[in-house]
Every structure is written in C-alpha cells, then in structure tokens.
C-alpha cells in the first residue's frame, strides 16, 4: 500500500453547514483527495452512501431532520459486520456523553469543532490506511487455503 492507494479513497461528507462542507472539501482537495461527495441534507445521506460506496464518512452530529446519531444507527444496519468502514464524527458538541454515544453507535473517531486541520488530516489518513489494510487482509484471507497437515486426515 502506498500514498496513491489512500488518495484513491472515496469520502462522503455530511454536515448541514455549507461553510463546513466547503472547508472540508478544500482541505481534502489540497491533500490530494478527489473522490469526495458532500451533502448538507442529511436525509440524502443514505442514498449517497449506497450509490457512492465511500471508504470514509465525515459526519456532523447536530443536524436538522436526521441527526448524526440517527445516521450512525442507519449505517450500522447497512455496513456488514465483517467490514471496516470508518466514520469520523466532527461536531461542536464536546461533551463526554456525545463522544460516548457516537463511539457506541459505531463511529471510529471523534473530533470537536473547531478542529485543527492538521490533526483532522492525520486522523483521516490513519482511518483510510486502516480501511485499505483491512480490505487487503480480507482479500488475502479469501485466497489463502487453511493449512492442512500432510499426515493428518482431512
């Protein structure tokens, strides 16, 4: 795996504030990510998730209509248990309760707004690296046959 593999990742950004979407889109573009889709309408998130099949989701918690917690619950029903699809929560809610609830619902990481852009990019790279390594390991496991001792019956 190399940097190019990570930069091919598909990222879905869900945040009701247009300014936050532009900030994240610009940040990701400057970093070299070009497969980025974003929405300010959380009710479109699941359709975009299904159509785009992202490698990473950047998710706000406090949104009208469907909040981030509801989306995390919906995502957990659509992501197979044997899959690693990271969700990075980006929220202004810095309470311990918000962190615990988001992580318990399946978020893999949590950043409080306003966030440090360098820290955010490091977390994004780390989550994507883990996703790519996980998928690579999963594909290797499918091609490897279990070891069978030559002197034991099968």
Describe, in plain words, how this protein is organized in 3D.
This protein is of the alpha/beta class and 154 residues long. The protein has one domain (3-143): 3-Layer(aba) Sandwich (Rossmann fold), CATH 3.40.50.2300. The chain is built from six helices and five strands, in the order H-E-H-E-H-E-H-E-H-E-H. The protein has helices at 3-7, 18-31, 45-52, 68-78, 96-104, 117-143; strands spanning 10-14, 35-39, 56-59, 87-91, 109-112. It has a five-stranded parallel sheet with strand order 2-1-3-4-5, with helices on both faces. The longest helix has 27 residues, at 117-143. The radius of gyration is 18 Å and the shape is globular. The termini are far apart. The model has no long low-confidence stretch (mean pLDDT 93).
Provide a brief overview of the structure.
By secondary structure, the protein is of the alpha/beta class.
Topology:
Blueprint lengths: L2 H5 L2 E5 L3 H14 L3 E5 L5 H8 L3 E4 L8 H11 L8 E5 L4 H9 L4 E4 L4 H27 L11
Parallel strand pairs: 1-2, 1-3, 3-4, 4-5
Low-confidence sequence ranges: none
Question: Can you give the mean pLDDT?
Answer: 93
Provide the gyration radius in Å. Answer: 18 Å
Strand elements, count: 5
Main β-sheet: number of strands, strand sense, barrel status? 5 strands, parallel
The N- to C-terminal Cα distance equals: 36 Å
What is the 3D shape? globular
- The overall number of domains is 1
Count up the helices.
6
Secondary-structure element series: HEHEHEHEHEH
CATH architecture: 3-Layer(aba) Sandwich
> How much helical structure, as a percent, in the residues?
40-55%
CATH class: Alpha Beta
Identify the strand order in the major beta sheet. Answer: 2-1-3-4-5
């Amino acid at each position: 795996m190399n940097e190019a593999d990570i930069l091919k990742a598909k990222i879905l950004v869900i945040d009701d504030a247009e300014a936050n979407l532009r900030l994240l889109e610009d940040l990701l573009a400057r970093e070299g990510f070009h497969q980025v889709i974003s929405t300010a309408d959380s009710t479109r998130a699941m359709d975009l998730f299904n159509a785009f099949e992202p490698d990473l989701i950047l998710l706000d918690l406090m949104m009208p209509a469907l909040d981030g917690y509801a989306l995390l619950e919906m995502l957990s029903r659509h992501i197979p248990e044997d899959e690693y699809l990271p969700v990075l929560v980006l929220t202004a809610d810095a309470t311990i309760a918000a962190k615990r609830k988001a992580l318990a619902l399946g978020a893999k990481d949590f950043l409080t707004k306003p966030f440090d852009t360098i820290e955010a990019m490091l977390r994004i790279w780390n989550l994507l690296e883990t996703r790519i390594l996980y998928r690579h390991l999963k594909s290797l496991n499918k091609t490897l046959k279990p070891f069978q001792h030559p002197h034991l019956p099968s």
